[in-house]
Amino acid sequence: MQPTIRLQREDFDAAAEAALLTRGRTDVGAVVTFAGVCRGAESGEPIAALTLEHYPGMAETEIARHVEEARTRWPLLGVTVIHRYGRIAPGENIVLVITASSHRQAAFAAAEFLMDYLKTRAPFWKQVEGKAGTAWIEAKDDDNAAAARWKKPAGDQAAE
Questions:
Q1: pLDDT at 155
Q2: Cα dist. 22→48, 70, 77, 95, 102 in Å?
Q3: Domain 4-19+26-146, classified CATH 3.40.30.10, yes or no
Q4: Which residues, 6+ apart, have CB-to-CB distance to 12 below 8 Å?
């Protein structure tokens, strides 16, 4: 399986990406697609936009490392991760994770694992633009708690 990992300014079409991942495949029994969309409010305050920045090269490498970890945990047949950067307005797509497997449990778990990583530990910086100006945002406690459930036991060589 050759995963697709792209960081781009441009929007994406989730349905087209899912179709591309599964085109001509008869071994895929489950496809989970998650698209993260920019909300119109952050912490209860209206926002004008989010600006996402990343470290080119490093971000792709780190995402690929976590895709590979997902492949070691679940029998995946395909993975697509697309993350946008730049200024993103409310209602626009931010991130797409698609996982394909023979069975739904693996596809769901792998998609959740990858999103929890992207939300908390991927090398992206998020700035919110609102009435009071701009501010950098860090991962929330709930997001960190969700990501912590994937941590492997101490002494496990494949642990994050």
A1: 56
A2: 36, 18, 9, 19, 12
A3: no
A4: 82, 84, 93, 96
Question: How is the chain split into domains, by residue range?
Answer: 4-19+26-146
Which amino acid is residue 80, in one-letter code?
T
How many CB atoms within 10 Å of residue 112? 19
pLDDT category, 160, cuts 50, 70, 90?
A: very low
| Strands 93-101 and 30-37, bridge-based pairing | antiparallel
81: tokens are: 């991760």
d(CA 3, CA 111): 13
pLDDT (tens digit, 9 = 90+) per residue, 129-149?
A: 998 899 888 766 675 565 567
The three-state secondary structure class of 64 is helix
Q: pLDDT tens-digit profile of 39-95?
A: 999 878 899 999 999 989 999 999 999 999 999 999 999 999 999 999 999 999 999
